[in-house]
Amino acid sequence: EKGYDAISVNDICKHAGVSKGSFYHYFETKQVLFMTLMENWSNTVMQSILSQPLSANSDLKEVLVKMPYHFDTVFSAVPKGFPILVDFWRQAMGDPEIWKLAVEPYRYFTGFFMRIIETGQLNGSIRKDVGSEVLARLLVAVAMGYLLESAYDQAKADWSAITSEGLKLLLEGIGGSK
User: Fold this and answer.
1) Are 116 and 64 in contact (CB under 8 A)?
2) Number of other residues whose CB lies within 10 A of the CB of residue 121
3) Are the CB atoms for 42 and 105 separated by under 8 Å?
4) In a domain? residue 178
5) Does residue 135 lie within any of the structural domains?
6) Which of 137, 152, 71, 145 is CA-nearest to residue 106?
7) Mind listing the pLDDT tens digit for each residue in 136-169?
């Protein structure tokens, strides 16, 4: 609610119902706690995607269109956690250690989408005249745009469904011969 810079270790301890001694037993600093939380969250999101089997015979467009539904928890957490996420990105720009953690999910998803796109290009379901990295970055940018939009429009919109429909429209434009 307050953002990373505005919240103190006292605030964290009070909200969590733990003593400062307990906090410092597990975390040297507020930054270490935050990096741990971000890393755990990032790993959970990536595991959610990895748990879905993907074969060369999969309908890759359908896989991509259904993917936003794996992010329901992300869409619901974004409005509340957005100030902290913005602070995290701001800090990451000035700290190489935080930057490494911040870009890991983007690199992961770019690589993940590249593999899906390359498979789709081989089977003809995704156009071949555009590089897989360009298309993967487009998909990541669209997904990030929907996450950002969900932070601004906090109505009870079904952001997974909205993102899925947007991806469906986008994929029609990058479709191949199938």
Assistant:
1) yes
2) 20
3) yes
4) no
5) yes
6) 137
7) 999 999 988 888 888 777 776 888 888 889 888 8
